[in-house]
Design brief:
heterodimer; A: 353 residues; mainly alpha; 3-stranded antiparallel β-sheet; 15 helices; 68% helix; globular; B: 266 residues; alpha/beta; Rossmann fold; 2 domains; 9 helices
Chain lengths: 353, 266
C-alpha cells in the first residue's frame, strides 16, 4: 500500500480544513465564510454520533445531551462560577464520558429499538432538568449568554480571534486544529483492533459474541467515546455561539445529527462530513436565496421571487433527504460520490485503452 | 464396541472433553432437548444425527451458551461451564460454526477471520487503540484461510462469496478462535456432491492434523459413516443411541426412529 492511500484520511482532513472556508466563501456559492466554523463543529459532533451509529450499530436519539454537556460545562464555569475555561471544558467532557458510560451500562443490553427509545427519553429528561434552571446554573430557557466567553477570546465586528501569548489566531483555525486532532483520534480508533471489533459488533452481534467478544462492553466503550467526542464539539460550540442555549439539548438537535449522518452515508468516515456540509450549505443557500433569475443574474429574462417558497427550507431539505435515501439508502451522498468517481475512473481507463 | 442407549455414556461427562448431564431445554410446551447425557472423549470425531426437529441445533446452542438450559449441566474439559457467558467459551477452547451462514457480511474474507484471531489474542474485551489492526493476527488468518481453501478470496466481501465458500469461511472463523473442541453445524448443507466431499475431507483434516475434538451435525450419511469415530442419534430431543457408525447403522432403535427415513439411505 502506498503511503498516500494509507494516509488518505489524514490528508483528506487537512485538505478539508484548508479548503472549506474559501470554497463556501466563493461568490458562486455562499459568498461568506463564517459558516465554515460552525460546519467544522457540527462535523465533529455528527462524526462522534456516527462512531456509535455507523460503526457500532447503535442508534442514539439523544445525542444532543453530550453536545450540551460540553457547551454548558464551559458556560457554567466561565459565566457562573468564574472558573477558568479549561476547568469547564475538562469537567464537561469528563461528565459526558461518565454519563455515557453509566447510561450505556444501564441500557446497552436492551436491544436496538429500546436503545433508541431510551436514549430519546433520557435526552428529554436532561432537557427538562436543564430547563428547570437547577441552582440558577443553567439559566433555564434563556440559556447562558452573559459573560460566557473566556477572556482570551476577542470579538471584533463579529469575527472572533484567540489571543495567545505570542500571536493572535483566527477562531476558525483554533477550531480547525481541535477538529483535526479529534478526527485523527477517531480515525486511529476506527482502524485500531478496538475499532475493528466495533465494526464486527455492528455487522453481526450474535456472531461476534459466539466468536468470543464481550459485545456489551464494546458497546459501552463506544458510547463513552462517542459521548466524550461529541462534548468536545459542544465546548467549541459554546465559544462559537458566545454562550449556551437550551435548544442544543433539544430533540431537534439529536434528530439533525441522525439525519445528517444518514444523508452523508453512515458507513463512511467522511459520511458525516459530507452530510453536515450538504445540510448546512443547502440550508444557508436556500434561506438567502431571493430572486431566481434565468438564465443568469446579469442577463435576466425571467425573474421569479422565490423567497416565499424558500423560507420553508426545512421542507426542501427534507425532500433532499428523502431523495438521497431513496437513491442510495445505505451509502448517502458520500457513498454515491465515491461510486461515481470509481465508475468515472474505470470509464476513463477504458477510453484510454 | 457396542451401542449405548439413552443416558449411558462412554465415560463420566465430567471427565470428557465435552460432556452434558441430564441436559434439558424447553421452549414453552416443546421440549427440544430432553434429558441428554453425553460424553465426547478428547480427540474424537463425533457425529450427531437425527431427523429434522430432533434438537440437534438446540443442543449445540445450549452447549455453546447461546441458550441457557432449562435443567442439566454442561462440562468442558472437567469444568462446569453451564453458567459461563457465551463469549467466554471460545476463549476456553470451545468454538462453533453456524447452520446458516453467519458472517461479518460487509467485511472482506480476510478481515472476517482476522478479527476473530484478534479476539482470541486480546480476550473478550480489548482496548488496544494504538495499533493498526490490519497487521494484528494477519499471518494466522492467512494460514487458516489456506487450510480451508479460501486463499484466493482474501479481498472478496464475505457477502459476495458463493454459498459453499461461505460455509467454509464459517469453519475458518471457528478455527481462528484456536479451539480444543469444535462444534460444526451441518458444514455441508446446501453443497453439491463434489463440494460435500471436499468439505468432509476438510473436517477430517482439521480433526486429524490439528488433533481437535469435533462434534458434527450432519445429514449426509456417507459423510457420517466415512469420517466419524462415533455417532449419537437424537430423536425428539433424546439421545437414543451412541456407538460406532457401522453398529448405529444396523441398530434396531435407530431404524425405528427413522422408520424408513434414513433406513433407505443407509
Amino acid at each position: 500500500m502506498s503511503a498516500l492511500s494509507r494516509y488518505r484520511v489524514p490528508v483528506g482532513l487537512l485538505v478539508l480544513v484548508v479548503a472549506l472556508r474559501p470554497v463556501v466563501a466563493h461568490q458562486w456559492l455562499l459568498g461568506f465564510g463564517q459558516i465554515a466554523t460552525s460546519m467544522l463543529i457540527w462535523m465533529l459532533f455528527v462524526a462522534a454520533f456516527n462512531l456509535l451509529f455507523g460503526f457500532t450499530g447503535l442508534l442514539s436519539f439523544g445525542h444532543a445531551m453530550f453536545f450540551g454537556f460540553g457547551m454548558y460545562g464551559v458556560a457554567i464555569a466561565v459565566a457562573r462560577l468564574d472558573l477558568p475555561f479549561v476547568v469547564g471544558a475538562v469537567v464537561g467532557v469528563a461528565f459526558a464520558a461518565a454519563f455515557g458510560n453509566l447510561l450505556g451500562r444501564l441500557i446497552v443490553e436492551k436491544g436496538e429499538i429500546y436503545f433508541a427509545m431510551l436514549t430519546l427519553a433520557v435526552g428529554e429528561a436532561v432537557y427538562f432538568v436543564v430547563n428547570r434552571n437547577p441552582l440558577g446554573l443553567t439559566g433555564g430557557s434563556n440559556g447562558i449568554s452573559q459573560n460566557a466567553l473566556p477572556p482570551w477570546v476577542e470579538t471584533f465586528r463579529g469575527q472572533k480571534s484567540v489571543v495567545l501569548p505570542f500571536a493572535e489566531v483566527e477562531w476558525y483555525w483554533v477550531v480547525a486544529v481541535v477538529f483535526l486532532l479529534c478526527m485523527l483520534a477517531l480515525w486511529q480508533l476506527l482502524r485500531s483492533p478496538f475499532g475493528r471489533s466495533l465494526v464486527a459488533v455492528r455487522e453481526n452481534e450474535g456472531l461476534a459474541r459466539a466468536m468470543g467478544m464481550n459485545v456489551d462492553r464494546y458497546k459501552i466503550a463506544s458510547f463513552t467515546a462517542s459521548g466524550a467526542l461529541a462534548s468536545i464539539a459542544g465546548v467549541l460550540l459554546e465559544i462559537n455561539t458566545q454562550g449556551a442555549s437550551i435548544e442544543t439539548f433539544g430533540v431537534l438537535t439529536s434528530g439533525d445529527a441522525v439525519l445528517m449522518a444518514v444523508l452523508g452515508g453512515v458507513n463512511y468516515f467522511f459520511g458525516p462530513v459530507a452530510g453536515v456540509f450538504v445540510w448546512q450549505f443547502t440550508a444557508e443557500y436556500l434561506s438567502s436565496f431571493r430572486m431566481l433569475n434565468l438564465p443568469t443574474t446579469e442577463l435576466a429574462l425571467v425573474s421569479v421571487d422565490v423567497s416565499g417558497v424558500l423560507q420553508h427550507w426545512r421542507f426542501l431539505l427534507g425532500a433532499l433527504f428523502v431523495a438521497v435515501v431513496l437513491l442510495s439508502p445505505k451509502d448517502g451522498v458520500w457513498g454515491a460520490l465515491r461510486d461515481g468517481v470509481r465508475v468515472a475512473a474505470a470509464r476513463f481507463r477504458e477510453v484510454r485503452r | 464396541m457396542t451401542v449405548l442407549g439413552p443416558n449411558e455414556s462412554i465415560l463420566d461427562p465430567r471427565e470428557a472433553a465435552l460432556g452434558t448431564e441430564g441436559l434439558v431445554r424447553r421452549f414453552g410446551e416443546v421440549t427440544a432437548v430432553d434429558d441428554v447425557t453425553l460424553a465426547v472423549p478428547s480427540g474424537e470425531l463425533r457425529a450427531v444425527i437425527g431427523p429434522n426437529g430432533a434438537g440437534k441445533t438446540t443442543l449445540f446452542n445450549v452447549v455453546t451458551g447461546l441458550l441457557s438450559p432449562t435443567a442439566g449441566r454442561v462440562w468442558f474439559e472437567g469444568t462446569d461451564v453451564t453458567d459461563a457467558p457465551q463469549y467466554e467459551r471460545p476463549h476456553a477452547g470451545l468454538a462453533r460454526s453456524f447452520q446458516s451462514n453467519e458472517l461479518f457480511t460487509e467485511e472482506s474474507v480476510l478481515e472476517n477471520v482476522r478479527v476473530v484471531v484478534q479476539t482470541a489474542e486480546y480476550g473478550p474485551f480489548g482496548l488496544d487503540l494504538f495499533r493498526d489492526a490490519a497487521s494484528v493476527g494477519r499471518e494466522r488468518a492467512v494460514e487458516i484461510l489456506d487450510r480451508v481453501g479460501l486463499d484466493a478470496a482474501h479481498d472478496t466481501l464475505a457477502k459476495n462469496l458463493p454459498h459453499g465458500d461461505q460455509r467454509r469461511l464459517g469453519i475458518a472463523m471457528a478455527l481462528a478462535t484456536d479451539p480444543d473442541v469444535l462444534l460444526l453445524d451441518e458444514p455441508t448443507s446446501g453443497m453439491s456432491p463434489g463440494a460435500t466431499t471436499k468439505t468432509a475431507a476438510l473436517v477430517e483434516d482439521i480433526h486429524d492434523s490439528l488433533g481437535l475434538t469435533v462434534l458434527l451435525i450432519e445429514h449426509d450419511m456417507d459423510v457420517v459413516l466415512s469420517i466419524s469415530d462415533r455417532v449419537t442419534v437424537l430423536d425428539q430431543g433424546r439421545a437414543i443411541a451412541t456407538g460406532p457408525p457401522e453398529e448405529i447403522r444396523t441398530d434396531d432403535d435407530v431404524q425405528e426412529a427413522y422408520l424408513g427415513g434414513i433406513r433407505e439411505e443407509l
